[in-house]
Design a protein that fits this description.
heterotrimer, A mainly alpha (about 230), B alpha/beta (about 325), C mainly alpha (about 280), B: about 325 residues, alpha/beta, D-Maltodextrin-Binding Protein, domain 2, five-stranded mixed sheet, three-stranded parallel sheet, globular, C: about 280 residues, mainly alpha, MetI-like fold, 2 domains, about 80% helix
Chain lengths: ~230, ~325, ~280
């Protein structure tokens, strides 16, 4: 147990770093991903193509490969970021691809008639998206976006490979110092579970808050959305 | 799967290559495709290395039979060695089909020859390990031994056995070539950003010998550490000299400065379960030291990058307290 | 086909008139310029730092380089295949356990699923590498990578199978009961075969996940592609080039798998709606 009590500051710092990586990466990914999704459904072909290429690259590259490229590859072409921001950038780029596909998927679930109705009362592309389609799509997007959040939480652990002292990195280091520190892994595991289950819980609350009261859902449907792809 | 995924890319690249003014580069090196470094082979060790390995002793059958560990290897017909094949001076892969070269590679092949006979040097299975995985791989029998610039430390002796030392290295400092003037020892590292491998002897060396370093970064492998140093994320890379010398040989942008400031005796990592392996390997090390093979090997490998004659060999079995 | 084109994304804008078409053209040209600008800027950075030197790239066509990376690719595919072969059936069993009426079983399975969905695989890998050996649990490095892959993937695929089983029309159960099948038989012979077909695209995506997870072989020094790339960097010092080549290989394989999944999915949807 003393492995923990002696290292409270280090552990707390690791937890804070994990939380910071996750939140920053996720929030940026929401923004970038939504912009990409708008590009993907826009009437401007080059923007659609560019967003598609982006998605195909960043949802198919393993996060570890991406992080190593950003941390150690980019400096060779003249861009050196602090390790922490390399981690945030990697998480953002990767999660944004999944946010984009889930938002697009969500847009596709809105009945065609609604968009047609919006068009017929004179709303333009952005007006239709903003006032009619996205608010409705939002509800169906919550669960997939929670999954992207969990993916970001889990992905943040890989930042330990690029010297970011988040909780997995701290655990690994302390485990080497204290031969029998399985306890350490339980602590780290608990941190991740709290983050991912907490995210799922908040998502559920949000979903109920915006759902019409008669639409009782039977538990979250967590099949892999084929359109959106598999995050790891 | 392999071919079908490679093919489109290859075709595109060939097309691209054809369009580029590559003639000069190709002519200059006389190779089919580009002038990139060979993945080993020309490791600088050359004929001296092969001679050194070929001149090693072979154990008596009785000696093998007396050791359960050696008998097991002899029956398996291969020696499974844990280590790296990416160190230019100690152990470097040769993908053109030959054996890896370097000081550790030589010790490995000599040990294989000692156990498996005249052609034993070719009967080694090289299994990659890293600083994080070495102890575990020895403990669980994935490898018969680890020969990998592996410093003998009291902490490691708690979990595994070490035969040797077979080479006395020391913790040293590597810097970018342009900083070689301003940094020459641990006293110059105050306030500097340092990088070292996680789970390495470098961490302790920094703690004990560097007052108030700047940021101390721990990365999982040598490649990342070199990148961090070259890219200016760190000002100095602290690790044992064996690894650093390999880096300097591969890449003139980084140089080793000053003298080693902490002793790092390299040992052969062995499982505590294989009790008789320790004596067996120590006997082997003593044999190659006594018959001059050790010195030949040193000259053909480390001697290529360190000036002067071969040092006095260490005394196997003489472990640090 | 009509079922697919009439999604909301297609009615967000009208078929443009002459003025609209001109505006789209102008915006298209503008965005092409911006995109090309970004690409040019990137290439300029590469060129300025000497990383576009063709000699640093064409070496990846050389037999020894290809063989070196090929060895890693084989390791990646082996680990992925082995993990899939164990994890997918295990996922199916877990899904059945999750849906079981035996509460303790269902609860235990739920815990397993939530646990392995919620923690990073890297942590599991480190547990196998660093913590468990101290307790006598010590497996070869291939399994140090593959067992965590199985644990994590079984949790994801369990949810996939559960969704698939739930998606099979309730009427199928009732029909099976009507012709006298026991609940077990109806699950085994009626529902499961349909469910497995339904989730096939998702399973292919799970394969993509596994392939990405196999990069953690990097940590246990198992010779998969990412680890071979790392070793190669040490020897050649071509860092950007090696990692770009490695990443492109991953992207190509995963892109292919994703396409297959999408094509399967589209065919099933077409069949479901087209009758």
């Amino acid at each position: 147990m003393h492995a923990i009590s002696e290292n409270i500051p280090l552990l707390l710092q690791g937890i804070a770093t994990t939380v910071a990586l996750t939140l920053l990466g996720y929030v940026f990914a929401l923004v970038v991903g939504t912009v990409l999704a708008v590009c993907r459904v826009s009437p401007i072909p080059p923007l659609r193509w560019a967003a598609t290429v982006y998605v195909e690259i960043f949802r198919n590259i393993p996060l570890l490969s991406l992080l190593i490229l950003i941390a150690f590859g980019l400096p060779d072409v003249g861009l050196t970021l602090p390790y922490f921001w390399c981690g945030v950038l990697g998480l953002t780029l990767s999660s944004a691809a999944f946010v984009c596909e889930n938002v697009r998927s969500g847009i596709n679930t809105v009945p065609v008639g609604h968009a047609e109705a919006a068009r017929s009362i004179g709303l333009g592309f952005f007006g239709t998206l903003r006032h009619v389609v996205l608010p409705q799509a939002f509800r169906t997007m919550i669960q997939p976006l929670v999954n992207v959040f969990i993916g970001t939480v889990i992905g943040s652990s890989l930042c330990s490979a690029i010297a970011v002292m988040e909780i997995t990195g701290v655990t690994q280091r302390l485990n080497i110092q204290y031969a029998q520190a399985v306890v350490m892994f339980l602590v780290a595991g608990a941190v991740y579970l709290v983050l991912s289950l907490g995210g799922a819980y908040l998502g559920g609350v949000l979903e109920r808050a915006v759902s019409p009261s008669d639409a009782r859902r039977r538990g979250p449907d967590r099949a892999l959305d084929v359109q959106a792809g598999a995050q790891a | 799967m392999t071919t079908s995924t490679f093919r489109p890319g290859r075709r595109a690249l060939v097309a691209a290559a054809a369009a580029l003014p590559l003639g000069a580069a190709l002519a200059a090196c006389g190779s089919d495709t580009g002038d990139g470094p060979s993945l080993g082979g020309e490791g600088g060790a050359g004929g001296g290395f092969a001679d050194a390995v070929a001149s090693g002793p072979v154990a008596e059958d009785a000696a093998i039979e007396a050791s359960a560990w050696a008998t097991r290897i002899k029956e398996a017909g291969t020696l499974k060695r844990g280590g790296t094949v990416a160190n230019q001076v100690f152990s470097l892969a040769d993908t053109s089909g030959g054996n890896p070269t370097g000081f550790d590679a030589g010790i490995t092949q000599l040990l294989a020859r000692y156990i498996l006979g005249e052609d034993g040097a070719d009967k080694v299975e090289y299994i990659d390990t890293t600083v994080d995985t070495r102890e575990t791989m020895v403990q669980n029998g994935t490898v018969d031994c680890v020969i990998a610039t592996y410093s003998i430390t009291p902490e490691r002796l708690e979990v595994i056995n070490f035969a040797g030392p077979y080479y006395l290295s020391g913790t040293a400092i590597q810097v970018r070539a342009e900083d070689a003037e301003s940094i020459s020892g641990p006293e110059d590292l105050t306030g500097k950003n340092l990088v070292t491998q996680s789970n390495s002897t470098g961490i302790q060396a920094i703690e004990e010998h560097v007052t108030d370093p700047g940021d101390v970064q721990q990365l999982p492998d040598n490649e990342s550490c070199v990148a961090a140093l070259k890219q200016g994320r760190a000002d100095a890379y602290v690790l044992d000299q064996g690894v650093l010398l390999g880096n300097s040989k591969a890449d003139p942008d980084v140089v080793v400065v000053g003298e080693p400031f902490v002793d790092d005796p390299y040992g052969v990592g062995l499982s505590k379960d294989d009790e008789d392996a320790l004596d067996f390997v120590n006997t082997f090390l003593q044999a190659i030291i006594d018959d001059g093979t050790w010195e030949k090997l040193w000259t053909a490998t480390i001697g290529e990058v360190v000036p002067g004659d071969a040092p006095e060999p260490p005394v196997p079995g003489d472990l640090p307290a | 086909m009509s079922a697919r084109t009439n999604t909301a994304t297609q009615v967000l804008f009208d078929a443009p008139g002459p003025k609209g078409r001109r505006r789209i053209l102008v915006l298209s040209i503008l965005s092409v310029l911006v995109i090309l600008g970004v690409i040019a800027l990137g290439l300029r950075q590469f060129a300025m730092n000497g990383e576009l030197d063709p000699g640093k790239w064409v070496v990846y066509l050389r037999a020894d380089y290809l063989a070196f990376l090929g060895k890693g690719l084989m390791g990646t595919l082996k680990a992925t295949a082995m993990a899939a072969v164990v994890a997918f059936p295990l996922g199916l069993l877990l899904a059945l356990g999750r849906l079981s009426r035996i509460t303790p079983l269902s609860a235990a399975v739920a815990c397993w699923i939530e646990f392995f969905r919620g923690i990073p695989m890297l942590l599991v890998v480190y547990a196998f590498l660093l913590a468990l050996p101290a307790y006598g649990v010590n497996v070869p490095r291939f399994w140090m990578l593959v067992i965590p892959m199985i644990m994590v993937s079984s949790a994801t695929t369990a949810e996939v199978f559960r969704a698939g089983i739930n998606a099979v029309d309730k009427g199928q159960h009732e029909a099976a009961a009507a012709i006298g099948l026991t609940p077990r038989d109806s699950m085994l012979h009626v529902v499961l075969p349909q469910a497995v077909r339904l989730v096939l695209p998702s399973l292919i995506l799970a394969l993509v996940s596994l392939l990405k997870d196999s990069t953690l072989g990097y940590v246990v020094s198992f010779n998969e592609l990412q680890f071979q790339g790392k070793t190669m960097v040490s020897i050649t010092r071509y860092l950007v080039q090696t990692y770009v080549v490695v990443s492109v290989i991953y992207i190509a394989i995963n892109f292919l798998l994703t396409r297959i999944a999408l094509a399967l999915d589209a065919r099933m949807k077409a069949r479901a709606t087209g009758g």
